[in-house]
Design goal:
Keywords: Apoplast, Secreted. The chain is mainly β and 85 residues long. It is built from no helices and 6 strands. It has one domain.
Length: 85
């Protein structure tokens, strides 16, 4: 389970704008592959109360990873696309 701060930038002093909440589980016998379900729940500004939902496989040691955006709420209702890390 995760419930991590969502901030404007990577520094600890960055402004808190929401929470990254969800879970991940090991989902591969051959490599470090995770099943991840995560909501980015915004609590500040015009996005307050809105969410973006990501669900997918995270191959941890792959240089570039993509996971699908499967929806959202509030200002992100019917969101589609992908996150890349």
């Amino acid at each position: 389970m995760i419930d991590d701060p969502l901030t404007l930038g990577p520094k600890l002093s960055s402004k808190l704008i929401g929470r990254a909440q969800g879970f991940y589980a090991l989902a591969s016998q051959e490599e470090v592959g995770l099943l991840m379900a995560m909501n980015f729940a915004f609590t500040e500004g015009k996005y307050n109360g809105s969410t973006i939902t990501v669900l997918g496989r995270n191959a941890v040691f792959t240089k570039v990873r993509e996971m699908p955006v499967i929806g959202g709420s509030g200002l992100f209702r019917f969101a589609t696309g992908y996150v890349q890390g």
